Structures are given as C-alpha cells and as structure tokens.
Amino acid sequence: MKKRFIISGGGTGGHIFPALAIANGIKKAVPDAEILFIGANGKMEMKRVPEAGYRIEGLDVYGINRSISPRAIVSNLKLPFILMRTMRRAKQIISNFNPDMAIGVGGFASGPALKAANSLGIPTLLQEQNSYPGVTNKILAPNAKKICVAYDGLEKYFPAEKIVMTGNPVRAEIVNIERKNDKAYSFFGFSKEKKTILVVGGSLGAKTINQCMEKGLDELEKMNVQLIWQTGESYYKTISPELLARQNERIKIMPFIKNMSDAYSIADVIVSRAGALAIAELCIVGVPTILVPFPFAAEDHQTKNAQALVDKNAALMISDANAGAQLMPQLLNLIDDELLCQNMGENLKKLARPNAIDLIIKEILAE
Questions:
Q1: What is the pLDDT of residues 350-361, one digit of tens each?
Q2: CB-based contacts of 99: which residues, under 8 Å, 6+ apart?
C-alpha cells in the first residue's frame, strides 16, 4: 500500500521552499509516495507548488488583521466563522486523501489542516524554521508527534520531549550547488571576468533594500560589477519604466528568481534579509553576505538570526533603519575586500547543516 503524506503551509518562500524540500526528500526515500499540499487560496504556494510538480488544494483562510481600520475590524469579526468553514473543508480534503501523516511548515493553512488531521487521528509533524516560533506551530505543538527545529532553546515554546534538532531543509539543487557554473553565467548573460552582486529581499521582496539599490544604482554601474536584483513581485510592479530600461548586460532586475541555484552559483557578494531559510541557504552556499534584518519580525528574530552569524564573523549586519546610509558604502567596500570575503565565506560554511533534510525525512518515516 502506497504511503501518503499531506504537507501544509506557505505564505512566503520561507515556508514554501522547506515544504518543497521535504516533499522532494520523501519522494527520494519513497519513490511511489503520494503527496498532497494544502495551502491558502491567494497565497504564493498556490502558484509555486504546482510549478514544482505537486498537487495542491487551497483553503479560504487568513490571519488576524492587526490594524484598527473599520475594514480590519470587520475582517477579524468574520474570522471565527471563516475558520469553522475552513476546518470543515480541511477535514473533507484529508478524509478523502487518507494520509499516513500530515506535516506542517507554518503559515495560515497549516493551522486548520493539521488540527483537522489531529481530529481524524492522523499523526502530525511540525517543521519550525525560526528561533521564535510562529503562533500556528505553538498552537499545534501539544498534539504533534515530533517537532523538527533549527535553533536551540525552543523548549521554551514546545514540549521538550518532542523536539528534534535537524536544521532547516534546503533544496537539493542548492545543497549540491556548483560554484561558478558556466551554464549559470550563460543564463544571466554575465561574464566570468566581472564580480557579481546578488540582492534578494526574500520571496516577497524588501522595500528598504529595494530603495537602497534604486538609489545606489549609479555607484554600482561605475564599479564595473554585475547585478542580479530580485525585487519581489509587488515592488517590481511599481518600478518606473526608466529604471527597467537601465537593464543591460551587467544589470538584471527580476521580480522573482526561480533558478536561485544559478544566482547563488555566480554570486560573489549577497545582500539579503535574515529569514531562517535565507540563513540556512547562505551557510551552505558560503558567499560573503550583508544581512539587513526585517525589523518587524516576531520578537525581532531576524536580527537574532543575523547576529548569530555576525558573532562567528560569518556575515555583516546593517539595521533596516541605517540601510539608507550604510548599505551601499559597505557593499562597495566588501566586494573589493578579497580577504574579508574569503574569511566570511569559510566561516559561513562552518555553520551549514547540509543533511537537515535527511534528518527530517528520518523522523517522518519513523514508525
């Protein structure tokens, strides 16, 4: 009888890409396994998961709106009724699919999906990416069979006997990346003779980083370097035609990079937010990085993520508030400091957990 697994969660790449890495890990270990994703309608998983070749069902679910506008108040008043309807739909999906286990990676959909699984007697496993857990995983933890984590100290939030230290799952193509790959240079139309800067603000983009890049583009052009700039899809829609027209053989501006392994392959310096998935990937890739933590993450956990690398001399950190004044000067200095780049890259790789996905799959398949 074929093994069947539900994987639920999403909203951002920080949830979706670990979910896809887990799905691919399951298929590698159990080739005939059947996998169904459950996501939130309107969120990016509804596009990214089918692109990766997996089936997904959507739930009409959203989180609490923390603003005080009349629209937000109405939305929050409706939420309990939405959740009741969503729970019924989640139960229907899970009953029809009849999985051996449901796996939650965080995000709006994973709450009702895993609660429905628990109510049907199906074992659940959580994968928590961050040093400060999301609300959904905190609620689901008491009924989970195991909780796979990437940071120490999470017994403050989860039952200690259920925690397994695995690290965060990273896509196989990034774990097995080939640095300075000729095909990657060809894809972007770049030269091996010039240094390349990769700027990523997470899958949804980062307004502060984008504004810094737009303001500093003249300086970068004078440096004779190459730039891959992922803006996020929302910001990309606001970019002026004049800015987009400045793209050439050295400057690529993209809403979203699907083949991130190629971008990592040719990057000499990276500018990034400090989400847990980004940190896990950066450690494996080992490219010197400037981190600009998102200041409104829960418990400011992105700053804590970044500080852990700074303390090991594995990255530089600039606060979001100071990025306007400091990011471009530090970026231009870093790309010319070969010794610092070499040391930072080596220190990053010492922090990598390339076998995280194997450890997670071991827990998923344990009887």
A1: 999 999 999 999
A2: 4, 5, 6, 36, 117, 122
Provide the b/e sequence for 143-165 (b: ≥16 CB within 10 Å).
ebebbbbbbeebeebbeeebbee
Angle made by CA atoms 348, 352, 354, in degrees to the nearest 5: 145
- Residue reference for tokens 């925690």: 163
Percent of the chain with pLDDT over 90: 67
Joined together, the tokens standing for residue 365 give 């398949």
> Residue 214 burial by CB count (10 A; 0-12/13-18/19+): exposed, middle or buried?
middle
**Angstrom distance (rounded) from CA 132 to CA 275:** 11
Please state, rounded to an integer, the average pLDDT across all residues of the chain: 90
* pLDDT(75) > 60: no
**Mapping DSSP to helix (H, G, I), strand (E, B) and coil, where does residue 197 land?**
strand
What pLDDT is stored for residue 162 in this prediction?
A: 97
Q: Do 93 and 55 meet the contact criterion of CB atoms below 8 Å apart?
A: no
**Cβ-contact 282, 289 below 8 angstroms:** yes
Q: Of 41, 170, 36, 39, whose CA–CA distance to 107 is shortest?
A: 39
Give the H or E element holding residue 126.
strand 124-128
Across the range 258-267, mean pLDDT stands at: 94
Q: What is the model's pTM?
A: 0.84
Instruction: Check: CB of residue 20 under 8 Å from CB of residue 7.
Output: no
Q: Could you tell me the two tokens for 309?
A: 């690398």
DSSP string, 294-359: -TTSGGGHHHHHHHHHHTTTS-EE--GGGHHHHHHHHHHHHHH-HHHHHHHHHHHHHT--TTHHHH
